[in-house]
Design a protein that fits this description.
Blueprint (H helix, E strand, L loop, with lengths): L8 H15 L6 H8 L4 H6 L3 H24 L3 H14 L1 H8 L9 H19 L3 H23 L7 H20 L1
């Protein structure tokens, strides 16, 4: 009977995710994960087909953390969703950077982000009485502004509470909505 493994798949995922949050995806390799867990690399490869498999699992988890942080706010309106987005960037800068600041690579959170965007478009169309194309233009412009705030927050250049972020976004939302009304 082979000896029972003392390192579980969940331990590998938790340790890897903590490392990802602290140091970014570039820090994830078999040796760094094994060092963080105090084991050899063997358990990693007994649960994951390779490091790409583990990294894909980490990306999926990061996307889930993002969805949990922002999706509930999307139904409350654009300013609330954008405020949650900024807060996510501020609280999880490495995850935010990996999900939304990757140059030349597919955005792993795009489906989640697209669903949240569409939810805010629907909410703003109802709120403002806009046609879908007007609501989409409103949301696109405001999300772009929020993304700038979020990137600055993730870089440590801006510290905003969620209410402050929501207030800033709401001012921009109101200005853009007024401009779209003509």
């Amino acid at each position: 009977m082979p000896p029972k493994q003392r390192i579980t798949r969940e331990m590998i995922l938790e340790g890897s995710f903590a490392l990802f949050k602290a140091e970014g995806m570039a820090s994830i390799n078999a040796r760094s994960v094994a060092r963080a867990l105090g084991c050899s690399t063997q358990p990693i490869f007994s649960y994951y087909e390779g490091m790409d498999d583990l990294k894909t699992t980490l990306e999926q988890r990061a996307t889930g953390v993002f969805e949990e942080a922002v999706a509930a706010s999307a139904g409350e309106g654009l300013a609330s969703a954008c405020g949650a987005y900024v807060r996510f960037a501020q609280e999880e800068p490495r995850l935010f950077a990996h999900l939304f600041l990757r140059i030349g690579r597919e955005n792993p959170a795009l489906p989640a982000g697209q669903a949240i965007f569409e939810s805010t478009v629907s909410a703003e169309a109802r709120r403002e009485g806009f046609a879908p194309d007007q609501a989409k233009a409103l949301c696109a412009e405001v999300w772009l502004y929020a993304h700038g705030l979020a990137a600055a927050a993730a870089a440590g250049l801006l510290a905003l509470s969620q209410p402050e972020a929501c207030e800033r976004v709401e001012r921009v939302r109101a200005d853009v909505a007024a401009r779209l009304r003509g």
